[in-house]
Design a protein that fits this description.
mainly alpha; about 0% strand; about 85% helix; elongated
Length: about 70
């Protein structure tokens, strides 16, 4: 079973994909493989970040309600 990558690990892997794609000595086939890997990393990272954003909204909604009560 493969270990799930953290968002930081995904971003580092994406940086490596970009460096590989920018190198001049990469074949078309390898470039396509790297591009596909990058697309997957971006998609997965977006999903993780969307989940984090939803959690933050839920957490801060409670804070906004208590802050409004404190101001009254």
């Amino acid at each position: 079973m493969e270990k799930e990558l953290t968002i930081d690990e995904r971003l580092k892997a994406l940086e490596q994909v970009i460096k590989t794609l920018e190198s001049e000595d990469i074949s078309l086939e390898d470039a396509l493989k790297e591009f596909e890997k990058g697309v997957v990393l971006v998609k997965e990272s977006r999903e993780i970040l969307d989940g984090i954003e939803k959690k933050l909204k839920i957490l801060t909604e409670g804070m906004e309600d208590s802050t409004d009560d404190d101001l009254s």
